[in-house]
Write a structure and sequence with these properties.
267 residues; alpha/beta; Rossmann fold; seven-stranded mixed β-sheet; globular
């Protein structure tokens, strides 16, 4: 009887965890506007994450961002953060920009930007990038030294053109500038991980059950970013005269085993 009760308890706990993550699946720009206005949510939930995936990790995340956007450690730069959200990350970026004399631009919905404090050196563009930002992109093309879009790209696809998004962000780069499209969930990478022994252990620990995750290779994944999409983005930017690389996240980040970054440099 005790074994049966424990099994039922584990199953309920697994279902609860699944429900918690499912509520943040397949969010759209308008969904984030709604989440930003919901004061019952934590700052992490407002940006589409259960607390477990961001609380206590954002200092590490920002350190990883700085390692890749090393121009941030210079002086008097022009910086853009596309989709900053309202957790600690945009505040860390603002603090760094204040210390380094950078000019910072936040591009996000009016609802999300309203969650952030005002700073005299921060410009706000309340719009969906790039669809509602044509004049901003035209005015500032070729002028930003560092551009960040962290945990944003997978909300562009499906529904909008992922290539247009990256093209527009890259268009902002000044000579020697760097664009980091960070925290991209790659379904191909996820499959490889969950097909491994370490991935199976991770799955069992997360669900509290002894079942293995189902993994199906060589199957289409409509609306998902996979190896083909990531490599196509790299090749497209290289063909446009930019350097582009798929780079791993620091292994201490919460989803480094199934997410990666796209780094684009203007020579």
């Amino acid at each position: 009887m005790a074994s049966t009760e424990n099994s039922a308890s584990d199953s309920r706990a697994a279902d609860s965890r699944a429900d918690k993550f499912a509520r943040f699946a397949d969010l759209t720009y308008d969904d984030f506007r709604r989440l930003a206005r919901d004061d019952s949510l934590s700052r992490y939930e407002k940006i589409g994450f259960p607390d477990e995936y961001r609380r206590g990790f954002e200092t590490r995340i920002f350190k990883d961002i700085r390692a890749k956007l090393n121009l941030l450690d210079g002086r008097d730069k022009k910086v853009a953060d596309i989709g900053p959200g309202c957790s600690e990350l945009p505040l860390m970026m603002a603090s760094l920009c204040a210390r380094r004399g950078h000019r910072l631009t936040w591009v996000d919905s009016a609802e999300m930007l309203a969650q952030l404090p005002d700073f005299p050196f921060v410009a706000r563009i309340p719009a969906r990038f790039p669809l509602d930002c044509a004049s901003f992109i035209e005015q500032h093309a070729g002028s930003f030294h560092a551009v960040l879009a962290y945990s944003v790209l997978h909300y562009v696809m499906p529904g909008s053109d992922i290539f247009d998004f990256v093209d527009a962000a890259a268009r902002l780069l000044a000579p020697s500038g760097a664009l980091l499209i960070g925290d991209v969930p790659n379904i191909s990478m996820r499959k490889r991980f969950f097909a491994s022994e370490s991935g199976r252990r991770f799955h069992r620990a997360f669900t509290g059950q002894q079942t293995d995750p189902g993994v199906c290779f060589n199957a289409p994944e409509p609306g998902r970013i996979d190896d083909a999409v990531m490599m196509a983005l790299v090749m497209r930017q290289r063909a446009a005269g930019l350097h582009a690389y798929i780079v791993p996240q620091n292994g201490r980040l919460p989803m480094a085993n199934r997410r990666e970054d796209l780094l684009i440099l203007r020579p």
